[in-house]
Write a structure and sequence with these properties.
alpha+beta; about 40% strand; globular
């Protein structure tokens, strides 16, 4: 009886062990299947996310393309135009100025400085120092303070551009575009352009200077056609008006 009892207990004890083993096998298979399914879902989601991101990037680039082309056309349609602006240098204050553009010619006035450009020669006058610096025009210069005729020409292969979104600048709703120069010799590494939605004209240019954390912001306060055709002599330096000034010629 005792031996039989032991045999019965042993037989009864073997069955749970066998059942537990089969349950574990099923659990392992189910777990591996779940992990495989989860991995597949993650991969699919990642692919969809990348595709959506690429689609958004293309859409954003298309938007910046359209905005820059419209801006270029808007400025070109003005003919001769005049811009009042304010320059803000981070942690250094601000100055105000004005410039007039007629084709490839321009005139700039910022406080005690004037710049005359007839399309070939650039003359910068410092009344405080009583100096006149003369140099050839750099046709590739895109800085608004040294060559305003090309300050807003971004719709070409000289810049990578991306639509950032809507921003508010100086109380105006604007479209923001991030730009990065692709040409060598640029004095800035990045540019942020805000275009006024109401007028389609530029509201702000913010330059991040190359090799430093300095930022220079040019805030456009007025941008429109001149009241009358500009006299071409306005863009040429009249030396007779600057007697006693030192002339420095780099041509």
């Amino acid at each position: 009886m005792e031996d039989m009892s032991h045999r019965m207990m042993a037989q009864q004890g073997e069955k749970p062990i066998a059942n537990e083993s089969r349950v574990n096998v099923v659990r392992d298979a189910t777990f591996r299947s779940s992990v495989g399914l989860l991995h597949g879902v993650v991969v699919v989601m990642a692919v969809l996310l990348l595709a959506a991101t690429a689609s958004l990037r293309v859409a954003a680039d298309d938007r910046s393309d359209a905005l820059l082309a419209a801006l270029s056309g808007k400025i070109e349609s003005l003919g001769d135009y005049e811009v009042a602006f304010r320059v803000v240098v981070k942690e250094q204050g601000s100055v105000s100025g004005v410039y007039v553009v007629s084709g490839d010619k321009y005139y700039i006035r910022v406080e005690d400085r004037e710049v005359f450009c007839d399309g070939k020669t650039r003359c910068e006058v410092s009344h405080a120092d009583k100096e006149v610096t003369i140099d050839r025009v750099d046709p590739n210069d895109r800085n608004i303070l040294s060559n305003p005729t090309k300050a807003f020409e971004f719709a070409d292969d000289q810049f990578r551009h991306t639509y950032v979104g809507e921003q508010v600048g100086e109380g105006r709703r604007c479209d923001a575009i991030a730009l990065e120069p692709t040409f060598s010799g640029a004095s800035f590494s990045d540019v942020l352009l805000l275009v006024d939605r109401a007028t389609g004209l530029p509201m702000l240019l913010q330059y991040k200077m190359d090799g430093s954390s300095d930022e220079v912001s040019v805030i456009v306060e007025r941008f429109g056609p001149t009241a009358a055709k500009v006299d071409p002599s306005r863009f040429s330096l009249n030396r007779s008006k600057y007697k006693g000034y030192e002339f420095i010629d780099f041509r």
